[in-house]
Structures are given as structure tokens and as C-alpha cells.
Amino acid sequence: MNADYRERLKDKKRIVIKIGSSSLIHAETGRLDLRKLEILARELSDLHNQGKDVVLVSSGAIAVGAAALGMKGKPEELEKKQACAAVGQARLMTIYQKLFGEYNQMVAQILMTKNTMVNNTNRRNAQNTFQQLLAEKVIPIVNENDSVSSYEFQNLVKFGDNDTLSSVVAALINADLLILMSDIDGLFTDDPNSNPDAQFIDIVENMDDNMRKLGKSSTGSNVGTGGMATKLTAAIIATAAGADMVIANGNDFHNIHRIVEGRSCGTLFVGNKKEEFFLIDYIEKLL
Ligand code: GLU
User: What Pfam families is this protein classified in (predicted)?
Assistant: First the structure.
């Protein structure tokens, strides 16, 4: 049964891949890990060459901007975070364009806020843009529009973390697979950093409230925003929308093709489309 679930991953046609800040930058300096980014660009261009639609949700704007502006770690103040995001997002896209360009793969930038999803017109606009870009064989690269989405009214306008943003994107574009590349191998029965008896969970067939309790609010990384709790919220949204979701370790981006080849890698949450799934209800209830 478990093998069947993994086997199904080979046939996925529309895949959203989320990369956390901690998987993109050197922890010691906060600067980009270019070797890893090269592997990421090759993995995603190759998935696209296999005829799949690919969307990348990339964090890192604030961390990269902070390093560029000579700040030690991520700043606390709202204005500084927004300025960092403005600098860092442009840098990030420049590098992505260069690396994907090596494989003749066109990329595009889509910046969103929670408002983009809650407002009907904005949401349809975003959906149409994704559809058109995918039809044009482009890989859209998505991030939250951190420079304008205020943290002060976080619940109203800001997702705040790219785990939930990527699940919302997956639901919006009817993706059939969401891959979250994190700083942990997947879901454990407890925090493996503090409990050596914590067991790795290979497959989650039903994303119920008991599973959600396994979420801790942080993974211990000091660069990203999402912990396991946001990943489990993402799993609720993605699986209810009918997509499978995998949490895997972003220390090796080769894990991306291993997952899509149906190999045992990361924790797989099996998609289970809810007939009454209505994205806006989930956003209002959970985010
Ligand atoms: N949007 C933030 C950034 O690009 C990251 C949010 C997150 O860590 O999930 O810096």
C-alpha cells in the first residue's frame, strides 16, 4: 500500500516545490549557497524537461537582503525587514535567472500577499497569470511580497511563512504534488533534536487533528519562519485540495528527483480531496 502511494508520485503533472531560507544560504554568513542553488536549478529544469509543470516557492528575500546590507542575522524591525526583502528579492531573482538560464529555462516572479488570495479579483488574476506562464513553459518563482505586506496586521494581510503560502498556491493552481524542502528529514513522532526516541513517519494517510498535534512551532533554524506546525497546516490545505505533499530534507536538492521517482524519501502526506473544499474557507479558518 505504502509502495503504491510512492509509485503514484511518478505520474505527477503539476508540482510546487517550496525551498526554505535555511536550505538556500550558508548559516555562518547568511549569503547564498550557490552550489546548492545550481543543483536546484538543474533539478527543476529537468523536471520541466520531463513535461511537468513546475512552480518554485522560494524564501530567502529577507535573509539575502540582510546579508547584502551587512546586518547580522535577520532584523527585528518591520521597516528593516521590508527594506531587506526589497534588496534580497531582486538579488535572488537575478541569481535564479542566471542559473535557470544555463538550462535555457525561463523563470518569472510572482509576489503575493494574503490579500491576493482573499480578494476575488486579485485571486483570479493570480490564477490566470500562473496558468498563462505554465502554458508558456515558464517556471514561476513565488514569494510573499514582504516589502508591502505588513507584519503588524499579520493575520489580515500576511501569510508570514512560505509553507502555508506554497500550499495555497498548490490549491490555487490545482497542483497534484507539493514538496516542502526543509531543514529536517520529515515528520517525527516527537522533536528528534530533543528526543532520541522520536520515530520517523514515512506516510501519513489521514491528516487529522492528532497528526497536527505533532507540530512544533520551530525546527530550530534561525533563518526561516516556518516550523513543523506551519508544515502541518500546509499539509491540511494541500491534501484537502487533493494534492499529495512531501516534507523532505533541503540539505540535498537531489531529493527532489528521488521523490518524483517514487523512492522512499521524506514524509508523504496522501492527498484526499474533500468534496466541499473551498480554499477561502481554509485560509480564513487556518491562517
Ligand atoms: N518570505 C520570507 C522571505 O523571503 C520567508 C518566509 C519563510 O521563511 O517562510 O524572506
Answer: AA_kinase (PF00696)
> Could you tell me the pTM of the whole model?
0.94
**pLDDT tens, 225-264?**
557 889 999 999 999 999 999 999 999 999 999 999 999 9
183 is in an annotated binding site: yes
Ligand 1 atom nearest to 226, measured from its CA: 9
What tens digit of pLDDT does each residue of 44-57 get?
Answer: 999 999 999 999 99
Q: Are 11 and 48 in contact (CB under 8 A)?
A: no
- Please, which residues have CB within 8 angstroms of residue 64's CB and are 6 or more apart in sequence? 24, 25, 30, 31, 32, 84, 87, 88, 89, 91, 92
| Domain region containing 204 | 2-286
For position 190, which CATH number holds? 3.40.1160.10
In three-state secondary structure terms, 117 is helix
